[in-house]
Amino acid sequence: MPERLPAAIDPDKVNHNTMKTISHWTPAAFCAFISLLALGMQIGSDSGAWKPAFYCFLPMCFFFAGAVTFRMHREIRDLQEQVAELRKSG
Questions:
Q1: Where does residue 56 rank: exposed (0-12), middle (13-18), buried (19+ CB within 10 A)?
Q2: Which of 1, 17, 55, 89 has the least C-beta neighbours within 10 A?
């Protein structure tokens, strides 16, 4: 039977951990992207046509950040419940 790879080089674990880390930074990257886009539009022209799009997408930044925070709190709550169950049974 083939030996299992250590967790440090196991492709399944590395991919999952990498995706989890990336998902936590997605809201910040999105906010930075639309901010840089708005800054570039402001420098490029004085028409002000970029403002409605910027202000319409701004709430999405808060939604994305809130969704990631909510998911992290849910994971913490689940882990705390598991620890409490282990303490009761042990």
A1: exposed
A2: 1
